[in-house]
Amino acid sequence: MADTKPVLVVTEPLDITADMVLTHLNERGVPVVRFNPADLPAGELTVSARFGDRPASTPVAGRLRTPSRTADLEHVRAVYWRRPVWPAFEHLDADDARYAAAQVRHGIAGVLHALDGPLWVNHPVRNAAADHKLTQLATAVRLGLTVPATLVTNDPGEARRFIAAHGQVITKTLRWTPYERDGIGMTSWAEPVTADEVDDTVSVAPHLFQARVDKVADLRVLVVGQQSFAVRIDSGLLDWRKDYSALSYRVVDLPNRLEKALLACLDHFALPTGSFDLALDRHGEPHWLELNPNGQWGWLEERTGLPMAAAFADLLAQGDTSR
């Protein structure tokens, strides 16, 4: 008899990467209920959950409904937490909108977090814990990975001394944040910085300074469960994200020691999947840059043919095998 336990896919409507995974889930006959929290005010999403009137073996019971699908909460196989959009309640005044938004987040997310059975890919609380770059750096050091010398400070003098000691230094944000200037969306890249460019404005907030790796290429590694997909990215750019048209890709094998360290990193943060960025120096040594717990990878599958979406589908279809 076919397993009828559904996978919940929580994401925005135009998520091509999620579509790729859903195609493989459909091929495997796995039931899927896809929804976006922003659909709730329009009546296209309803959630009903009961607590306290069931035996201890079923602490949460209820249903989640969309216009086309229904999921019994006590039988959810996995939750694929991709890129959900939360309702903004723009028709309400600011205080009411903030109140309503909080109820949605704690209502929908709270119900899902309370479930015992499903595998989370990935749980948003664990994503958030793993998303701190400085925690990542310390974890990478503990795991024996090569980490560029890094300083976080709001002391301009300390920053200048660090740059003087290391010569080639870059600066990058501690956290990407949506930002507009004159109505135009802005973003930030890793950029070189000199001691002369450091002024007293550094004291306003902590800044990240890092010794520049004399790299020849970048390495993006996607780990899904126990599978690793490694792609070398050649660009000649300090930050390859600045110009995707300048990139070339090559599938590579990971050294066993590096693969074990990356798997251990995900285990440390209790994440089933994550995307790692490393820099390759002229001797082929990988240098840790960062972990993106919910990184994009769809374009890499398109460019390399690696079966990344199929790996996600297999992981979600298995559910939580530890129970």
UniProtKB/TrEMBL annotation:
InterPro entries: GRASP_SAV_5884. Gene3D superfamilies: ATP-grasp fold, B domain (3.30.470.20). GO terms for biological process: SOS response. GO terms for molecular function: ribosomal S6-glutamic acid ligase activity. GO terms for cellular component: cytoplasm. This is ATP-grasp ribosomal peptide maturase. It comes from Streptomyces violaceusniger. The lineage of its organism: Bacteria, Bacillati, Actinomycetota, Actinomycetes, Kitasatosporales.
